[in-house]
From TrEMBL:
Keywords (A to Z) from UniProt: Heme, Iron, Metal-binding, Oxidoreductase, Peroxidase, Signal
Domain Cytochrome c: 294-429, 448-590
Subcellular locations according to the entry: Cell envelope
Lineage, top ranks: Bacteria, Pseudomonadati, Bacteroidota, Cytophagia, Cytophagales
PROSITE patterns: CYTC
Residues of the signal peptide: 1-23
Pfam families registered for this protein in UniProt: CCP_MauG
GO cellular component: cell envelope
Highest taxon of source: Bacteria
MF (Gene Ontology): cytochrome-c peroxidase activity; electron transfer activity; heme binding; metal ion binding
UniProt name for this protein: Cytochrome C peroxidase
Length: 596
């Protein structure tokens, strides 16, 4: 019945409009009619089924209505995420408080994931009033989102971009279970989202190849009912990548220019795994800070030159290329002999593809991160101003700065030093590991065990819900608009008989919000085979220790009291062979581009 209602609503609107004596509807007009009808259907289901049953119905019926509501939302997701992202986050964002660090405030989450927590794994009758309140809030936000969509002008270029991004969203978030962590219906919902993409693309005309791919992808996902065993690699290689390639090529054939040329995703990249799919300059913050070949070359010179600090240390002292820009130590050596700095040296590879730097996320740009390290008395104990003065006295550097920054007429400033260093770090995003080359279809480069590990990483082990493809850090594609931190409860010593939390309170030191106590940025797991020891305290010597920690549900899963832990405390129940498969997959993310 649900499918009939959805289809009838769309067809009725299209028939009424097509019967007018005006010119034929454009793809944009058809899309507007389609999404408004689907939004009305979603609102009807949420209000007249989910809300009504939540007010007085049995738990089983509420869950059925909730599942129907989620499926109806997936019909419009590509529009809400693209055109109304703020409302979309309220409709289907993570069930965690929204933290505004600048305002030192937290805001309670809302939407389908919050509603899900009231229904799964166990429904509590005592929470019925709260459930009803959340559903009413969802309906209200939905109305606001509809108004945004109704008043937004759709263009053909943006519609195609929205469709492409929805395919990426299915791969990265839907199939990882990010927005259905308890109900685990992400695979079935992918089928509905694909159906919506197919419907919207049909407004542009016929494309038999693309239609066939989408149809087969819909059938493939609709037949999968086990979240853990779903073959994500097969879906991406057989359907998702071919769909986005075909869509990109079709857009060229239709002579529709690419939308958002300066966006985070390269609009002419054919898949999410293309080497140039992610625009490194999107994260720069300003046109002046954007990396260029001249800035990168200059930044590399500065990175390995003690002239920056004025002593014997360089950036490369703690970030060695052969160790994926780490130093192999639990905590880096401080300037004073026999002492160490506060935390482990993280990799700088892909560090530019995030919105916060340092484990505690206190720096919002690579420029400010560079300045903080140079100033730190334990790390470099220098001055950016003094560094600029020294560089001005060296003709080769002055010339290099003038080539990189044509606006420099007389002298190098501290700002130019920081931008040059940041530009080099931004360039450290090769996307050329064995995994990347496999995903681009260069040839079959992954073993059966490694593919199994990828599927576990993105499925049963839930790694992909925090370490998002393709960067595998805390910045989620396809929007890349937020870098996440997590509270997982890192132990002081994972080998100790009695587990004890590490004393480092992370982000809480900078921002006194209870939710941030023991919170740390989610780093990339790319090149993880080269970046041991692990965690901010460097206490975990091997990947087996790390996997054991997650398999047990972090600190809370081990029995420690950590009420604000964001990592689910339930054990993952991974077998030893599954753990080894995940480790094998992680090793495929090693990239030796900068090793020499």
């Amino acid at each position: 019945m649900k499918k009939f209602i959805l289809t009838a609503a769309v067809l009725l609107n299209l028939i009424l409009l097509c019967c007018t004596p005006d010119a034929p509807l454009t793809p944009s007009q058809k899309a507007k009619t389609y999404v408004l009808a689907e939004m009305d259907t979603l609102a009807h289901i949420a209000e007249h089924k989910l809300l009504r049953l939540a007010s007085a119905g049995p738990s089983d019926s509420i869950r059925i209505a909730f599942a129907e509501t989620r499926m109806a939302y997936k019909q419009v997701e590509l529009f809400t995420e693209y055109y109304a992202p703020t409302a979309s986050k309220e409709l289907n964002g993570a069930a965690l408080p929204e933290i505004e660090v600048e305002e030192t405030k937290t805001f309670e989450p809302s939407g389908l994931q919050v509603i899900e927590e009231h229904l799964y794994p166990v429904y509590e009758e005592s929470n019925r009033k709260e459930l009803v309140r959340e559903i009413k809030k969802f309906i209200s936000i939905l109305g606001r989102a509809r108004n945004v969509l109704e008043s937004t002008e759709f263009t053909e270029a943006h519609l195609l971009s929205a469709c492409k991004q929805e395919i990426y969203r299915i791969m990265v978030l839907g199939m990882a279970g990010f927005d259905t962590p308890l109900a685990a219906t992400g695979i079935q919902e992918a089928s509905v989202a694909l159906t919506a993409v197919k419907e919207v693309l049909s407004f542009f005309g016929e494309n038999p190849e693309l239609e066939k791919l989408l149809y087969e992808a819909i059938v493939y996902t609709s037949q999968q009912h086990n979240f853990d065993s779903f073959d994500r690699m097969a879906f991406i290689m057989r359907f998702a990548n071919p769909i986005t390639r075909s869509l990109t090529n079709w857009q060229t054939e239709l002579n529709i220019p690419a939308a958002d040329a300066q966006s985070v995703l390269n609009p002419i990249a054919t898949t999410l795994f293309d080497q140039d799919a992610v625009n490194i300059n999107y994260f720069a913050g300003s046109s002046e800070a954007q990396a260029t070949p001249a800035k990168i070359k200059l930044g590399k010179m500065l990175f390995f030159d003690p002239v920056v600090a004025g002593g014997t240390r360089t950036c490369g002292t703690c970030h060695r290329p052969e160790l994926a820009f780490t130093d192999g130590m639990p905590k880096s050596a401080a300037i004073e002999a026999g002492k160490v700095v506060q935390r482990n040296a993280p990799t700088l590879l892909y560090a530019g593809l995030q919105h916060a730097q340092f484990y505690d996320m206190r720096a919002t740009s690579l420029e400010s991160q560079a300045e903080a390290v140079i100033l730190n008395k334990e790390e470099m104990h220098g001055s950016v101003t003094e560094a600029a003065n020294r560089l001005n006295r060296q003709q080769n550097y002055l010339q290099a700065f003038q080539e990189a920054f044509p606006e420099i007429k007389a002298e190098v400033t501290p700002k130019h030093v920081m931008i040059a260093l940041a530009s080099y770090v931004r360039s450290l995003a090769p996307f050329n590991s064995r995994f990347d080359r496999h995903m681009r279809g260069e040839k079959e480069l992954l073993s059966v065990e490694e593919v199994k590990g990828f599927n576990l990483f993105m499925g049963k082990a839930k790694c992909g819900t925090c370490h998002f493809m393709p960067v595998f850090n805390g910045t989620a594609a396809p929007a890349f608009n937020n870098t996440e931190g997590e509270v997982i409860g890192v132990l002081q010593n994972p080998n100790a008989a009695l587990p004890k939390l590490d004393a480092d309170e992370g982000r809480y030191v900078q921002n006194q919000l209870a939710e941030l106590c023991y919170s740390f940025k989610t780093p990339t797991v790319r090149n993880i085979a080269k970046t041991a020891p692990y965690m901010h305290n460097g206490a975990y010597t091997g990947l087996e220790q790390v996997m054991d920690f997650y398999n047990k549900g972090g600190a809370a899963g081990m029995g420690l009291i950590l009420e604000n832990q964001t990592l689910p405390s339930d054990p993952l129940n991974l077998r030893e062979d599954e753990i080894q498969a995940i480790i094998a997959f992680l090793q495929t993310l090693t990239d030796d581009t900068y090793a020499n």
